């Protein structure tokens, strides 16, 4: 049985509510499940353990039926009632829930009246004008639905870096452990640390290529073999992710690694540089007249062209070849440089671990400090803290800090930027905090100018240390809201406001393409996990990868400062930072 999490409980209850709505069941029943989902979401304590022990009686809002279902779900990992409900509908119908802006009411209408039961049939019904003529729909809605379908197609077959990371590394280790493999790597967009990827490009050096391609195709994770050849094979994993394996000789390995790491644009530029020097570069070799440079590893290829080694993250043809040529490549930040981190949640708002658990986990990772930033009261759906609860949390943090000797919690808040750019707490309270992250969590549809002014107003506040998840994007899920990043960076520079690099695999926001510009304007970055449970502190490593991709060095990142340094820095007025 897979580990049951709070999210699993919440999602199942919400899904039941949706299915009941589709069936046209009475609204009270539907609401009971939706309320139940909310209670589970916000419960202050270990709800999963309680449910596993059927110890839910004294929790307000759970009827007997709901308690029984949570018990079954938590203790067995599945719920017969839910499975049965699902079985009443065609499996493809559930695709419709992935279409943004299409709620259960609308799904029910198209299902009942047009017999739409898949994305394909919905698309057709929109194109035929049938959706537009439905009561309560209209041409505008039909058009929006088509847009959302196009979006879904655009996102299809792409994967978030953080979601594929653990499995990618497991498969790589397996290849490295194979006795016939002398070197192995993952090339492609994964090695370049792109935020989303289409497929993984494994590479091995071996004297037995066909043995390796069959080994790869026969791994238990391979759901389907798409191509199997003697030097190249492509498989599909259970989640749909494709993996290429190329098996090459040890001599060709550096060339293959360079070539298949890409990007294509970087390779094109590199090849034309080589041609100017009379060398032709391909995925196997240098060729040309005269003596060829000796190449044992990838770095030798760059050296042969008179360049310094270019870290894979920078290979996007965005100035890295020129910088390498001029000896001006940045000395990129490393994971070990991080001394602490900011923006983390606890059970006080929508997190899953207590202050102490979060502190211990951060300490175990070798960090010297952990900035707490639970939600503020306007984020009621995330159980945001009001003034009283925040003040209690500040005291609790101060008390805990008395117990630690080589570690400190830093008291903060993820304060909502309200629609007009004012903050959810007044200055008196913000002043009591050690730091503050300001974030947008609602009114996403403002036009660019209004949104930009809204955020700028927040950054102008003396107590706003940093700006959280700048664009609100959720990778492969929700587009960024409209905001002028150039102006945000200029304002961050003037007001000495830090910009966060949110490490959640869904966010990785601000986008890596902007960090070089921010750095040129002396804007500091804070690499923040936005952790809602202790395990999510691990996503710091993705943050570092994206920071590297954004050309950031150690000194460009606030949380490379030691605890003492960061405390001194926080004590300065913004203008002196
Ligand atoms: P993606 O879409 O996330 O899989 O991105 P990549 O960069 O991993 O792309 P992929 O898997 O198609 O190819 C891996 C690398 O192989 C790519 O970054 C550069 C190299 N490559 C592939 N096709 C070409 C090509 O037509 N010309 C050149 N110069 N390089 C190529
Ligand atoms: Ca790839
Ligand atoms: Ca590929
Ligand atoms: Zn947030």
Please, could you describe this protein's structure?
About 45% of the residues are buried. A hairpin with a 4-residue loop joins strand 6 (about 230-235) and strand 7. The chain has five domains: about 5-85, DNA polymerase beta, N-terminal domain-like (DNA polymerase, domain 1); about 90-155, DNA polymerase, domain 1 (Orthogonal Bundle), CATH 1.10.150; about 160-250, Beta Polymerase, domain 2, CATH 3.30.460; about 260-325, Beta Polymerase, domain 3 (2-Layer Sandwich); about 335-575, Metal-dependent hydrolases (TIM Barrel). The model has no long low-confidence stretch (mean pLDDT about 95). With about 575 residues, the protein is α/β, with parallel strands linked by helices. Helix 1 packs antiparallel against helix 2 (about 25-40), helix 1 packs parallel to helix 6 and helix 12 (about 255-260) packs across helix 14 (about 300-305). The protein has 23 helices and 18 strands. The protein binds 2'-deoxyguanosine-5'-triphosphate, calcium ion (CA) (2 copies) and zinc ion. One calcium ion binds next to strand 4. The site of one calcium ion has 4 residues, from strand 4.
SSE topology:
Blueprint: H1 6-23, H2 27-42, H3 47-52, H4 64-76, H5 80-87, H6 104-114, H7 119-127, H8 138-155, E1 159-160, H9 161-177, E2 181-187, H10 188-191, E3 196-197, E4 199-206, H11 209-217, E5 222-228, E6 232-237, E7 242-248, H12 253-261, H13 264-276, E8 280-281, E9 286-287, H14 298-304, H15 320-325, E10 340-341, H16 355-364, E11 369-371, E12 374-375, H17 387-403, E13 408-410, E14 413-416, H18 427-432, E15 437-439, H19 448-459, E16 466-467, H20 485-495, E17 498-502, H21 515-520, E18 525-528, H22 540-549, H23 563-571
Parallel strand pairs: 4-7, 10-11, 11-13, 12-14, 14-15, 15-16, 16-17, 17-18
Antiparallel strand pairs: 1-3, 2-4, 5-6, 6-7, 8-9
Helix pairs in contact: 1-2, 1-6, 7-8, 12-14, 19-20
Bound molecules: 2'-deoxyguanosine-5'-triphosphate, calcium ion (CA) (2 copies) and zinc ion.
2'-deoxyguanosine-5'-triphosphate binds at residues 188-189, 194, 197-199, 201, 259-260, 262-264, 267-268.
């Amino acid at each position: 049985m897979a580990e049951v999490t709070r999210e699993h409980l919440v999602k199942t209850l919400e899904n039941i509510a949706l299915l009941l709505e589709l069936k046209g069941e009475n609204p009270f029943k539907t609401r009971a499940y939706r309320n139940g989902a909310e209670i589970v979401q916000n419960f202050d304590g270990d709800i999963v353990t309680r449910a596993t022990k059927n110890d839910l009686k004294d929790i307000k809002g759970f009827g007997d039926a709901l308690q029984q279902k949570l018990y079954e779900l938590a203790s067995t990992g599945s719920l017969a009632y839910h499975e049965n409900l699902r079985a009443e509908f065609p499996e493809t119908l559930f695709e419709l829930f992935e279409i943004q802006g299409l709620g259960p009411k609308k799904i029910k209408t198209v299902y009942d009246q047009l017999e739409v039961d898949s994305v394909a049939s919905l698309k057709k019904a929109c194109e035929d004008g049938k959706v537009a003529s439905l009561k309560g729909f209209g041409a505008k809605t039909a058009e929006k639905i088509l847009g959302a379908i196009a979006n879904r197609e655009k996102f299809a077959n792409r994967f978030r870096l953080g979601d594929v990371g653990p499995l990618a590394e497991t498969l790589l280790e397996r290849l490295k452990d194979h006795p016939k493999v002398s070197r192995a790597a993952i090339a492609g967009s994964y090695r370049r640390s792109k935020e989303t990827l289409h497929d993984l490009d494994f590479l091995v050096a071996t004297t037995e290529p066909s043995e390796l391609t069959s080994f790869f195709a026969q791994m238990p994770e391979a759901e389907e073999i798409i191509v199997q050849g003697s030097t190249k094979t492509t498989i599909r994993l259970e989640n749909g992710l494709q993996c290429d394996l190329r098996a090459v000789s040890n001599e060709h390995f550096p060339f293959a690694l360079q070539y298949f790491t890409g990007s294509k644009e970087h390779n094109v530029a590199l090849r034309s540089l080589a041609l100017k020097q009379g060398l032709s570069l391909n995925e196997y070799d240098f060729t040309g007249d005269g003596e060829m440079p000796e190449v044992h590893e990838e770095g030798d290829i760059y050296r042969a062209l008179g360049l310094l080694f270019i870290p894979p993250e920078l290979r996007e043809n965005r100035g890295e070849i020129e910088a390498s040529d001029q000896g001006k490549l940045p000395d990129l930040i490393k994971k070990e440089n991080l001394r602490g981190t900011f923006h983390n949640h606890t059970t006080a708002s929508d997190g899953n671990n207590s202050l102490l658990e979060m502190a211990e986990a951060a300490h175990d990772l070798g960090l010297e400090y952990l900035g707490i930033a639970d939600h503020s009261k306007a984020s009621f759906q995330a159980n945001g803290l009001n003034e009283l609860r925040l003040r209690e949390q500040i005291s609790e943090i101060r008390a805990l800090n008395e117990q630690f000797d080589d570690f400190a919690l830093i008291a903060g808040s993820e304060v909502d930027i309200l629609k007009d750019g004012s903050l959810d707490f007044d200055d008196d309270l913000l002043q009591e905090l050690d730091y503050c992250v300001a974030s947008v969590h609602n009114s996403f549809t403002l036009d660019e100018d209004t949104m930009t002014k809204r955020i700028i107003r927040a950054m102008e506040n003396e107590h706003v240390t940093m700006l959280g998840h700048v664009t609100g994007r959720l990778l492969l899920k929700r587009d960024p809201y409209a905001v002028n990043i150039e102006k945000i960076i200029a304002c961050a520079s003037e007001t000495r406001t830090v910009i966060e690099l949110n490490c959640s695999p869904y966010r990785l926001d601000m986008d890596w393409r902007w960090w070089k510009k921010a750095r040129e304007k002396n804007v500091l970055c804070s690499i923040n996990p936005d952790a809602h449970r202790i395990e999510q502190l691990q996503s710091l490593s993705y943050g570092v990868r994206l920071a590297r991709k954004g050309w950031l060095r150690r000194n460009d990142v606030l949380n490379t400062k030691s605890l003492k340094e960061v405390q001194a820095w926080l004590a300065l007025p913004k203008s002196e930072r």
